[in-house]
Design goal:
It contains 27 helices and 33 strands. By secondary structure, it is α/β, with parallel strands linked by helices. A four-stranded antiparallel beta sheet has the order 6-5-14-16. Strands 10-11-9-12 form a four-stranded mixed beta sheet, with helices on one face. It has a four-stranded mixed beta sheet with strand order 31-30-33-32, sandwiched between helices. β22 (about 490-495), α15 (about 500-515) and β23 form a beta-alpha-beta unit. The model has no long low-confidence stretch (mean pLDDT about 90). It binds one RNA strand through β8, α10, β25, α18 and α20.
Length: about 900
RNA sequence: GGGAGCUUAGCUCAGUUGGUUUAGAGCAUCUGCCUUACAAGCAGAGGGUCGGGGGUUCGACUCCCUCAGCUCCCACCA
């Protein structure tokens, strides 16, 4: 393509869809098992986003990282597979569906389970997968043919099978748990849906008369006086001497007039309140456990809607808050209220209805985690699974060592329904179908009919399906020997957020070890949270999150990807700022313009390769290989931001600012063909290196600079797309070349500074005279200095030059640029004096070290040698400066 | 209340088992340039007593103690 056909600025909108469709058409994203060895296979399973969700910045970061990893693996010749999918997210999705129905005037309570699920599936069909379509705009190279959904038939069945299996192993049981009951919505809500707020409330001190002792009381403090209706004991600390005399006694509940025992338990905090606690097992989880320990009865005082139930003889049918007011008055009247104090405590509110949450005991399904968690702890502690960054190992261990049983039932309809079946008299069996359940139940009750059998109404926790994800996407639960599973499992990398380390990552490891006897992934890359400038988490409810698709429109997908990755080392939060995307876009444009430069050259086969081009090529070749090794190392350590930054600097600074300036021919002059070819080769390698980060622009430029004779669908040379090209590998390089050029760069910078100070335009040629003061002086890059600084002459001299601007380079070489009357002795002198001061400081610090006996005797030899070299360098420099100063005077 | 982590330039972060410089990078800032690849740019420059204090050491951003501030996780007190 000719330059006059190429846009002056990179325009992502024109090419992104073109290339994405092309990649899809060529089926590059699709992977199937082949005969490659395990080390040449690469697989990531995407953390499935909520099926009805829309793309937010967190997804952008997470999926950009995965795409970088999978594209790099693909270019390393691995059979790379990235499996996408969505999660049914039972709570969130059900809430959305309920809200949508409400808008239509439909109340969930008026629907049957089947009717509701029909609505939910309709919603899923309509909105499900929008998020996956959005990921395509980002450039995500997922194997879309393998897209899964956690409620797909096979994944659904896998969950049921696992439940049955764990039940049969005796690991799943039913138990009582305190749930967060929303008396307004009449449902239990999850911990995540409870908002804790600080509330100004009161602490009521109530007097309980002691049985058999006249006018003797024990005082307890409570924030919820209405719950005395459900008291079944009063509890003190066994070592608390104040209450020692109460052992074996009992008290009367005020107003209720029920006698309850005084018990002793170390749970009680002696410092709080009166040191004496009332026990209400039905309405507090701690009280519940104390109740079990001390075999106390449990008195449930509330109806589901938060009113007092009929079993309680007082205040029946009245609301809990009304009762609180009334009971305080009644207690006071009867003389049982000792005092009230202001008190601040935290109260849970329902996120959905804003009702005060009532802790309520209920029967739930649990998974015993004790034994199955152990191996999952080991594989992380012994580094079979690596966390990036490793600091999360601590948090993981802490959790796994204190693991609690997992409550896996949820009072919802959207999800995998628990395969437990009940008879009218309360017998329970676990079975795959109702028919199977009936069969089992008939063993003891052969008269039972199918309509007598009722399935559990609850569904399983969403995580109980996602913990199987790395296995179930391959149908590995139902088909443990299938080819895909054997090929791709264990997967390589998992990219996710630290917030769900326990909810999800730990449980996947547990499931992997339980069902495959093998870890599910080898590396876990933990991303941070995307925050706004004020440090707040970006969220839809705060409205502080930009729409990722708008950003892509503005800056291009590549620009946004670079922006996301620039400041997000693994495990660190990402303080997002749109200017980061701007930086990404600017980088695209820089690469684009470098392409326009290289693409626009006329080539000559007759002119010889200039000396400056030869050395420049040697230098850049060394630099490239040096940086390739560094970038490979960054990737090996999962330091993606560092890898990107190293690439960024290699392209922008080393290639564009130095190399291209060094080799580019004068205006309208042709370039020799050798230099052009090698430059194109460098460019290709850089594009390949950039491709995982910036897939679109690199594919476009790859084709513009590539051979352009074959065209398919208007696209050049289809067999040779960068996405499937072979990534360059680091090779040997001459390190001394890099060092030598570094001193050259310093010389060039000094000359540019002089030009700037003296206001000499670049087009005015200068003369440079150099006085070597050391045999080590390097002349290799003189031709480059001459070219970049526009020197008409570069000459070595043995005597100092007057009326020249001077500076001192490496090895104390003196550089002179004759400027005639432009020289101002005073400024030259100040310059020299400040350099002298620096050199003297260095000399002093080295001398003090070297004169220290103990330093010389205990420091290792190389350290001392270095110090000696610093000393002699400083000394030499001081001598040179001193002489120059003498001449100025 | 328990646990983990963090504190280096205006911002975001590197700094590997203490000794490669006079502690680095990107962005931002300042100065000069519309120099025919690129003003979404070029060239140059400035900026840090490495949170405070103490200790170990010939030598500390790096190791130990202590104080202060911030963050996250878990559990929540009637």
């Amino acid at each position: 393509m000719k330059n006059d056909e190429i846009a002056l600025k990179y325009s992502p909108q024109d090419i992104e869809d073109k290339w994405y469709n092309h990649w899809l058409k060529m089926n590059y994203f699709h992977s199937k098992p082949d005969d490659k060895e395990p080390e040449n296979r690469y697989c990531i399973v995407m953390p499935p986003p909520n099926v009805t969700g829309v793309l937010h910045m967190g997804h952008m970061l997470n999926n950009t990282i995965q795409d970088v990893l999978v594209r790099r693996a693909r270019m390393q010749g691995k059979n790379a597979c990235w499996i996408p999918g969505t999660d049914h997210a039972s709570i969130a999705t059900e809430a959305k569906v309920v809200a949508k129905l409400k808008e239509e005037g439909i109340d969930k309570k008026d629907l049957t389970r089947e009717e509701f699920l029909k609505h939910a599936w309709d919603w899923k069909e309509k909105h499900g997968g929008i998020i996956l379509e959005q990921l395509k705009k980002l450039g995500a190279s997922c194997d879309w043919e393998r897209t899964k959904f956690t409620m797909d038939e096979d994944l659904y069945e896998s969950v049921i099978d696992v439940f049955i299996d764990l039940y049969n192993k005796g690991l799943i049981y039913r138990g009582v748990r305190m749930v967060n009951w929303d008396p307004s919505a009449l449902t239990a809500v999850s911990d995540e849906e409870v908002i804790h707020k600080e509330i100004q409330s009161k602490l009521y001190y109530l007097k309980y008369p002691i049985v058999g002792e006249k006018d003797a009381f024990v005082t307890i403090a409570t924030t919820r006086p209405e719950t005395i209706l459900g008291d079944t004991a009063v509890c003190c600390h066994p070592d608390d001497e104040r209450f020692a005399h109460l052992k074996g006694k009992s008290v009367i509940i005020p107003l209720v007039n029920r006698e309850i025992p005084i018990i002793f338990d170390e749970y009680v905090d002696r410092e709080f309140g009166t040191g004496c606690l009332k026990i209400t097992p039905a309405h507090d989880i701690n009280d519940y456990h104390i109740g079990i320990k001390h075999r106390l009865p449990s008195v449930d005082i509330f109806n589901d809607n938060g009113t007092i139930n009929e079993k309680i003889e007082l205040y029946v049918g009245k609301d809990r808050f009304d009762v609180r007011k009334e009971i305080v008055i009644d207690l006071e009247k009867s003389g049982y209220l000792e005092k009230t104090e202001d008190y601040t405590n935290k109260v849970g509110f329902s996120e959905r209805t804003n009702a005060v949450i009532e802790p309520k005991l209920s029967l739930q399904w649990f998974l015993n985690m004790q034994d199955i968690a152990k191996p999952a702890l080991d594989v992380v502690m012994n580094d079979r699974i690596l966390f990036h960054p490793a600091k999360f190992k601590n948090t993981y261990r802490h959790w796994m060592e204190n693991v609690k049983d997992w409550c896996i039932s949820r009072q919802l309809w959207w999800g995998q329904r628990i395969p437990a079946f009940y008879t009218p008299n309360g017998d329970v069996v676990v079975a795959k179908t109702k028919e199977e359940a009936l069969e089992k139940l008939r063993i003891t009750n052969y008269e039972l009919r199918i309509e007598d059998v009722k399935q559990d109404e609850d569904v399983l926790d969403t995580w109980f399906s996602s913990w199987l994800w790395p296995i179930s996407v391959f149908d590995g639960i139902q088909n443990p020997d299938n080819k895909d599973l054997k090929y791709y499992y264990p997967t390589n990398d998992l990219v996710t957020a630290p917030e769900i380390l326990f909810f999800w990552v730990a449980r996947m490891i547990i499931a992997g070890l339980e069902y495959r006897h093998e870890i599910p992934f080898k590396n876990v890359y933990l991303t941070g949270i995307v925050r706004d400038k004020l440090g707040r988490k970006m969220s839809k409810s705060l409205g502080n999150s930009p729409d990722p698709l708008d950003l892509i429109k503005l800056y291009g997908a590549d620009g946004v990807r670079v922006g996301m990755l620039l400041t997000s080392p693994a495990g660190n939060d990402l303080p997002f700022d749109e200017s980061l995307c701007e930086q990404g876009r600017n980088f695209c444009n820089k690469i684009w313009n470098a392409m326009r430069l290289v693409n626009g050259w006329d080539v000559s086969n007759t002119i010889e390769q200039p000396e400056y081009a030869k050395v420049s090529i040697d230098w850049f070749d060394a630099k490239l290989n040096e940086q390739l090794a560094i970038i490979e190392d960054h990737f090996a350590k999962y330091r993606l931001s560092d890898a990107l930054m190293a690439t960024y600097k290699l392209v922008w600074d080393d290639f564009c600012s130095w190399y291209l300036e060094m080799i580019k021919p004068a205006y309208l002059q042709p370039i020799d063909s050798d230099t052009r070819l090698i430059t194109l080769d460098f460019f290709d390698k850089l594009l390949q290196l950039l491709h995982p980060f910036m897939p679109f622009i690199t594919e476009e430029i790859w084709h513009i600079l590539g051979v352009d004779d074959i065209k398919i669908d208007g696209i050049d040379d289809c067999d040779d797309d960068i996405i499937v090209s072979e990534l360059p590998k680091s090779g040997n390089f001459d390190n001394s070349l890099i060092d030598k050029f570094e001193t050259t760069q310093q010389v060039i910078t000094e000359i540019r500074t002089i030009r700037k100070e003296k206001n000499i335009p670049q087009k005015d040629a200068l003369m440079l005279f150099i006085k070597k003061n050391n045999e080590q002086h390097e002349t290799l890059f003189d031709s480059v200095i001459q070219k970049l600084c526009n020197l008409e002459k570069l000459e070595y001299i043995s005597e100092k030059l007057e009326n020249a601007s001077t500076f001192i380079g490496a090895n104390s070489a003196e550089y002179f640029i004759p400027l005639g009357n432009k020289i101002d002795k005073d400024t030259e002198k100040t310059k020299l004096l400040s350099e002298l001061k620096q050199a003297e400081n260095l000399l002093r610090s080295t001398q003090s070290k070297l004169s220290n006996e103990r330093f010389v005797s205990s420091a290792p030899e190389p350290v001392i040698a270095l110090e000696r070299k610093k000393q002699s360098d400083a000394q030499q420099k001081i001598n040179v400066i001193t002489k120059q100063l003498e001449q100025l005077n």
